[in-house]
Predict the structure.
Amino acid sequence: MNPTGKNKCFECGRMCPSEKVFTVDNSCLCPRCLFGDGSPVEIYPIGYVSEVQAGEGNGSTGRNSNPVSTIELLPSQKRFMYKLEEEKELTVVYHLHKSGPIRSRFRRKLDGKEVGVFASHTPHRPSPIGIQDVRLRRVEGTTLTVEGLDAFQGTPVLDIKSAGHGKS
């Protein structure tokens, strides 16, 4: 970052406030070069991942394959939880709030194949949103215990949906 608090965009050469640039392939890009004329979308979290416990490890990838997580929904979300406890599988949408610089191409850890961001599960994405199907273990008040969520403690949860039961 230069002393003015601005960075020069690698593609268009404009100076942008440092908080408005993205690091892609070790170069700064302004939002216009990365997203065109698109505008940011305002999304509020409905809760947060409050606890993550280790599950069964996966020797081939080194990842925790079945972590058990606790999601604390905001008290205001209680009205939307009617019969949630009857669901076995949920889809959790969350913000990858600890993602870092983006590489447009890299070798996937799973199989070593060179791929782009959209052919991978990397958290380092232009729009850092995670989506994952999980198993619902229990609901207590506005606290959900789920299995299989690959998220950190403190991760903002953006939405929860029933997994695989039609379109309503």
The longest strand covers residues 129-140. The chain has a mean pLDDT of 89. The chain has two domains: 6-35, 47-162.
